[in-house]
Amino acid sequence: MADLFAGFEPAAPADIAAPDAPLADRLRPRALGEVVGQDHLTGPEGAIGRMVAAGRLSSMILWGPPGTGKTTIARLLADAVGLRFVAISAVFSGVADLKKAFAEAAEHARMGTKTLLFVDEVHRFNRAQQDGFLPYVENGTVTLVGATTENPSFELNAALLSRAQVLILHRLDRAALELLLERGEAEMDRPLPLTPPARDALVASADGDGRFLLNQAETLFSADLPAPLDPAGLSSFLQRRVAVYDKDREGHYNLISALHKSIRGSDPQAALYYLARMLTAGEEPLYLLRRLTRAAVEDIGLADPQALVQCIAAKDTYDFLGSPEGELAIAQACLYLATAPKSNAAYKAQKAAWRTAKETGSLMPPANILNAPTKLMKQIGYGKDYAYDHDAEDGFSGANYWPDDLPPQTFYEPTERGFEKRLSERLAYWSQLRAERRS
Fold first, then answer.
1. Ranges of H-type helices in 156-304
2. What CA–CA distance (Å, rounded) separates 45 from 56?
3. DSSP per position, 238-265
4. Are residues 286 and 279 in contact, defined by beta-carbon separation less than 8 angstroms?
5. Closest Cα partner for 242 from 272, 197, 175, 273?
6. In 3-state terms, what secondary structure has residue 355?
7. Less CB within 10 Å around the terminal CB: N or C of the chain?
8. Global pTM?
């Protein structure tokens, strides 16, 4: 077993609050090289790896699911570059706590010690509180490391985002979760009391959350089990539905991939088979509903707008009826998606629009469509010559809505399938009218 743990050292006694500390705390990495599943950031070529090598950190937002190492990385960053580490939680902290943290950081800075301020759940601070960070980040009083499980684009101020680099942490994959279990076994000096299929089911049930996985493993280590548990025994012991895997050990991610691709390939029989495989194995129905909804918007889109409606209706029905009756609604949604016309035009349009938005920065819309609530704004041309489309012939003015420095772009190109065929005809008609009215 020694080779499995090469390069990993359990935390030294000084790093542990107590000998009976939770397993997840005892296994908390002591160096960035021990962090699992985030090599794209912490490796030599990753953003964090490069900053540590240069000995200089910039403020950053760590965005990722729970249990992926955000807090650990922040603490290790401070140690790696010799910064004082201060942690606060936006859930439990207010303005007074922030003022105290900034005042102490300023005092330490005068004595030559910089501060890394780690803010957990940073998105929970309101916009005024977020603005309060700006002067201290700009003058170097603190290096801000915020952690969030929510999309920073929606939850954080643009001003704060412009001063911090957003780094995305990945949900831990199967290999990373397995490595955590191996470290736990080394720490406990005994293997988990599970059969190989049950071990696979335990890893799958963690859904990428390393902390959850170690907590579940600790529960198993603490039990005096007469024999290793099989998947059914594990589900009963943990009081949690876990996926059962057949003797070939075909995994959770292979099955969900097969379901999604069967829907995309318009094979309702195969799609229903893989859905049944996962539901009868104990997969969480809401997880499957989320994946079906993703397929509705990614692979069907506006070729059949009812696909998304069917998925949301299936979710509501399952919430109302529960299992097993509500699973019929999930099957109905699956069959609807598999038999619907397919288009990824909306998916491609979203990707293209996001890419252009990032490349073009903060271009102002043309003055004619700017809102003009004040006299000054009207005087400088906001809203001037705006064409109210409802007053135009055919309800279409053909006006320009693009920034002056950005020519009109084409992101969405509907297919000739399903409802998108009608959309394609409509767009062509508007394009013709626009050309005529600008000529």
1. 158-161, 174-188, 196-205, 210-222, 231-238, 252-264, 268-280, 285-295
2. 15
3. HTS------TT---HHHHHHHHHHHHHT
4. no
5. 197
6. helix
7. C
8. 0.55
d(C-alpha 114, C-alpha 78), whole Å: 10
Residue with tokens 């794209």: 40
* CA distances from residue 197 to 88, 110, 257 in whole angstroms, order as listed: 41, 58, 20
For residue 132, which amino acid is it?
A: G
Q: Which of 76, 95, 46 lies closest to 145, judged by CA?
A: 76
Spatial contact of 200 and 248, defined as CB atoms under 8 Å apart: no
Q: Residue 275: its pLDDT value, please?
A: 95
Alpha carbons 255 and 242: distance in angstroms, whole number: 14
Burial 14-48 (b: 16+ CB within 10 A, else e): eeeeeeeeebbebbbbbebebbbbbeebbeeebbb
What percentage of the chain carries pLDDT values higher than 90?
A: 50
At a CB cut-off of 8 Å and minimum separation 6, what does 79 contact? 85
Strands 142-148 and 115-120, by their bridges, are parallel
Residue type, 241: R
Which residue do the tokens 């890419």 mark?
355
